[in-house]
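Task 17 of the worksheet. Students: predict the tertiary structure of the chain below and write it out as structure tokens. Keep your answer in the requested format; marks are given for formatting as well as content.
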Amino acid sequence: MRTREEVTAFHESGHAVIAAAQGQMPWKVTIVPITGVCYGHVSLERPANESDPWGGRGCTRDAAAVRKNARALALSGQRRPLEILRAIRREAAKLVEEHWPLIGDLAGELLKRKTLHRADVAAIIPPHVNRSCEIPDRQ
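Model answer:
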């Protein structure tokens, strides 16, 4: 059975690798928990203030965005929300399967170092997967 830290490392690595494959290289990936908030996080933006480690986009804000989008789907009337969510899950499963080896590599490094910055993540993700443009130096 995997530990919470291992599960979190794979979970956050999945977000990071898929984001990079979609052209958004993460700024920071961490499995350092914030008590009562989350066990890890992927930040796609450079924080404006280093004392705000998530750049104002923490786990609770992400969850609120998901709820808001789910409500918008329910009200759209174009397709039933459940059909849309199932299609999203199928697509997510395909992306995870396609990139699973990289997700595992990134998770292994995350378990060793706890936090990875953009250059660290880019060193693990090969250029043919990393569709993001410029990778600035980490601070």
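Marker's comment: The chain has four helices and three strands. Helices lie at 4-21, 59-76, 81-113, 118-124.
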